[in-house]
Write a structure and sequence with these properties.
This protein is mostly helical. 69% of the residues lie in helices and 0% in strands. The model has no long low-confidence stretch (mean pLDDT 82).
């Protein structure tokens, strides 16, 4: 499910969510292009961390996660 931003949302709240999504996508790109085993391991850690931050922010915005999958 994709979250769509609306015009009544707080600018900074949306910016934080967008930054978290951008960070997650950048980490996925690093993972997909990494060749060194240590860099692959680092990219996995960064992807997991960015994903958790993104999901946390979405749940926070939705009112403690009501209606969102874990």
């Amino acid at each position: 499910e994709v979250y769509m931003f609306n015009q009544t949302d707080s600018y900074y709240e949306n910016l934080s969510i967008k930054n978290a999504l951008d960070e997650w996508q950048a980490a996925r790109t690093r993972f997909n292009t990494a060749t060194d085993p240590k860099m692959i391991e680092l990219a996995i850690y960064q992807m997991q961390s960015a994903q958790k931050r993104f999901v946390y922010l979405l749940k926070e915005k939705a009112g403690e996660g009501k209606g969102l999958a874990p």
